[in-house]
Specification:
Strand order of the largest sheet: 1-2
Radius of gyration: 13 Å
Number of strands: 2
Mean pLDDT: 86
Distance between the termini: 26 Å
Number of domains: 1
Helix content: 40-55%
Length: 82
């Protein structure tokens, strides 16, 4: 709940939210769900050099596949905070 409150506070203040994992992560891909579920706009999980990171990207692809045409892509609007 603290994470969700922090995301809401950042968005309310006009900030762009970036969901990030910590080094030494596991293959738990929950942050991908969190990023999409909160419409964070960005996720920082590193390159595809390790299986724990690939798991997060794979989850994002599964989510996009499930959402189909409803999957939003904000592009540079997220980077610019628009």
């Amino acid at each position: 709940t603290e994470t969700l409150a922090a995301i809401k506070m950042a968005k309310d203040a006009g900030f762009t939210v970036v969901i990030s994992h910590r080094s030494g992560e596991t293959e738990d891909a929950t942050i991908a769900d969190l990023a999409v579920g909160t419409a964070a706009g960005q996720i920082k999980t590193g390159s595809l050099s390790r299986s724990d990171r690939v798991a997060k990207y794979n989850q994002l692809l599964r989510i996009e596949e499930q959402l189909g045409a409803k999957a939003p892509y904000n592009g540079l609007k997220e980077v610019k905070g628009q």
